[in-house]
Design goal:
Blueprint: H1 3-21, E1 32-37, E2 41-43, E3 47-49, E4 52-62, E5 68-78, E6 89-93, H2 105-111, H3 117-125, E7 129-133, H4 149-163, E8 176-182, H5 184-199, E9 204-211, H6 217-224, H7 230-243, H8 249-252, H9 255-264, H10 280-283, H11 292-300, E10 312-317, H12 325-337, E11 342-347, H13 352-371
Helix pairs in contact: 4-5
Length: 380
């Protein structure tokens, strides 16, 4: 055998051995699957481009039952240099957008129809990078696991992890981190706070602001039953069913219930108004909320059983017609009893949406002080 052929054979053997000895690293939560540049706009018709560096990101996260999944989101980074050291990263959790992929915030921002971008812009103006998750199944294959708090908390934390791994974004994995959200996003922010010490301990989480929090899904569902916003309760049932297959919601519905939920499966939040005035009893011959399997999963997704280790701002509209003030104040009491540093703010807002408008700027200012390193004082 010639020397050249022997050398080639040895090289091939060494290559095979190296592949055997060093298998590919398994995917982990927060890993970036893809990141492509995008553009976001404040107004429909792609008017008023937001002057930031932006990426549409696919990243790995964890489902409510512990399986690795893929979630989409958007990363926004100001173009100007951050003057105070390491640029902070804020995980922004949006409120209810709907069940269909076309409702995802990454889609609405690219089309100039994302209402929450106004609040996000307040964070960007302070120089913070903002990671905005679409949540599981909203913008990616499979149904949206709407109001499955554990999945949503994972998606928020992993959006921040992924943000620090996007090539060219210039973000540090040692950056100070904050989380903010309202309504569905408020629950997601609360879950991010509770899950972070065990799930993402490497993140330097400084504070969490959560408004209009549906902390107790069972209580909220009972409140919405038969009301104008029953569509949100029905959507939450569909979302939990997607997260926990053993619930098998379809098997417990009547023909009308199956038809109505099938029709709503691709709806955005405004379309859910067509379910106004209905009751769970219109959709099922049994008391769904009284079933042990539902009670178990609802209890599992009830906030308050774990004490966050960072300061919390909780705010709630006095006249909230969707998530009763009592639900928010009960969460505040639980956290206070557990020794959490809580700042509770009861807003004069007459309804749920106005609570987001009134409380959003307050939350941005409070979080900014925490990211600047100033201590938080609670009012338990």
């Amino acid at each position: 055998m010639s020397v050249s052929r022997l050398s080639a054979l040895l090289s091939a053997v060494l290559l095979v051995l190296s592949l055997i000895a060093t298998p590919a690293r398994a995917a982990t939560p927060g890993d970036v699957v893809s990141a492509r540049p995008t553009t976001v706009y404040l107004l429909p018709g792609k008017l008023l481009e937001v002057p930031v560096n932006a990426w549409h990101v696919l990243y790995h996260s964890t489902s409510a039952t512990g399986s690795l999944n893929t979630v989409s989101g958007t990363l926004l980074v100001p173009k100007s240099r951050y003057p105070l050291g390491t640029r902070p990263v804020v995980g922004y959790a949006v409120g209810t957008h709907g069940l269909g992929d076309q409702c995802a915030p990454s889609v609405s921002m690219a089309q100039g129809r994302e209402a929450e971008l106004a609040l996000v812009s307040l964070l960007l103006l302070k120089g913070f990078a903002v990671a905005i998750t679409d949540y599981e199944g909203l913008g990616t294959p499979g149904p949206h696991t709407y109001m499955a708090g554990i999945s949503q908390g994972h998606a928020v934390l992993d959006s921040v992890r992924a943000a620090t791994r996007v090539p060219g974004a210039g973000l540090s994995n040692r950056a100070p981190v904050a989380v903010m959200g309202y309504s569905q996003g408020g629950a997601s922010a609360g879950w991010a706070a509770q899950l972070q010490p065990a799930y993402a301990p490497e993140l330097r989480l400084r504070a969490v602001a959560a408004g209009g929090v549906p902390a107790d899904l069972h209580a909220v569902a009972r409140h919405l039953d038969g009301g104008d916003d029953f569509g949100l309760a029905a959507a939450a049932g569909a979302g939990l069913d997607a997260a926990y297959p053993e619930l098998d919601l379809d098997a417990d519905l009547n023909d009308r219930g199956r038809a109505l939920l099938a029709d709503a499966a691709g709806d955005c939040v405004g379309d859910l108004d067509k379910l106004a005035g209905l009751r769970f009893s219109d959709l099922s011959p049994i008391d769904l909320l009284g079933q042990p399997k539902w009670q178990a999963r609802l209890a599992e997704n009830r906030l308050g059983s774990v004490a966050p280790r960072v300061p919390m701002l909780l705010y709630h509209a006095t006249g909230d017609q969707i998530i009763p003030l009592s639900v928010g104040s009960a969460l505040r009491s639980q956290y206070c009893r557990a020794g959490v540093n809580v700042r509770w703010t009861k807003l004069p807002a007459p309804d749920h949406v106005t609570g987001a408008v009134e409380g959003g700027p307050l939350a941005v200012g409070w979080l900014a002080l925490r990211l600047y390193g100033l201590p938080a004082s609670g009012n338990c």
